[in-house]
Amino acid sequence: MDLWSCKHMxxxxxxxxxxxxxxxxxxFIVLVFRALMFPTFPNFGGxxxxxxxxxxxxxxxxxSEFGVRKDKFLxxxxxxxxxxxxxxxxxxxxxxxxxxxxxxxxxNLSASLxxxxxxxxxxxxxxxxxxxxxxxxxxxGFVHLGRFSDISNRxxxxxxxxxxxxxxxxxxxxxxxxxxxENSTDDFEVIRIVGKNPFMWHDHWPVKDYAKVFECLVLVDxxxxxxxxxxxxxxxxxxxxxxxxDTLRTNVDFKNSSSQPTPYVAVHMRVEKDWMIxxxxxxxxxxxxxxxxxxxxxxxxxxxxxxxxxxTIIYLAVADSLLEDSSILxxxxxxxxxxxxxKLGVWDIYKKYPYLxxxxxxxxxxxxxxxxxxxxxSTFSNLIVLExxxxxxxxxxxxxxxxxxxxxxxxxxxxxxxGGPQRWMTEMSDSNLQAISYGTNNISC
Length: 445
Description:
The chain is an alpha/beta fold. The protein folds into 3 domains: 1-31, no CATH class; 64-215, 3-Layer(aba) Sandwich (Rossmann fold), CATH 3.40.50.11340; 221-438, no CATH class. The protein has 15 helices and 13 strands. Helix 4 (83-99) links the parallel strand 1 (73-75) and strand 2 (103-105).
């Protein structure tokens, strides 16, 4: 019996077969609707399922335009290691939360440098270093930071175990995140990541995404003011010391006038004992001999920056507690005005803070310098150059090689022109943060 025969059936058979006709009619309508809405083709196996996934993805993308979801959260372990490794770990956690369309619960950072002995870690809240409100304001619609008090039900938590070791590949890590996103974890208000510390997570996001998060990290007023005091002291001491000497001329236009602050060069002098051990092992593993730099090599190359002459003010940024060589001010050309924390008279500012805040102050001092010189395998140097690159890009400069530009940076571990350090800009189009996280000798110029 088909639909047509049902329609023209006589009265006597209508009662007997009415139920069958109705069922057949319903099935026919469903099949027509399915054919119109979800077409399938023999040559495209699984097309129907993929089409549904694409619709879901498009819907999620549209929702994200209105901001990150604030009723679902991602929790991460305490973040460890040095300041800039912690900033990368924090950004990686933010981007993980963004991928899962969740708010990141404000994590604890680590005030101390001890990262192997967990019991020695000194936890410090994120908002003791960076401005919580400013972060959410600057990153609005991109990532969002929440507080634990925002959680309504702390009992329902989904624990996500992060793997480690060589078997835990980039692909496995990304597949894990995709499965979590697609599965029914939306029932849980909180996803808690457990396992290896966040800095060891694999990287799945482009440099520009990380840069966006870094732009939202603004120091709290207390630390920013301390950094401003150090910068002011450098300019003041340099100005008074060089008064009467030749006008400073370097690769940027330094004009000594009352309307402009006295310029200075900041050198991230990475010669501390922890670094020398690390960089030598790294050179052996990577077969690259452009990682470690002795004090003598740094001095020689910095002095050969084109245009560097006497009366140049140089601030040497070092981790004093890890420094074994106290002669970092010796061996430089006569006439260069060299300062470090103690000679500058700002040690009292630094000594009252834990390692993390000391590093944050030095970072800001280096970031504001007219010229910056660092090591391309140092995370500290890398993030400073990234921010300085962004400043130049906003000024319309996309390449600094061979040009006299504002905010120039150099890598002293790589030999450049005239025996000086290599000019350095961050490659903002990189698809991941590998070069910045672990260093490279390919630095754009």
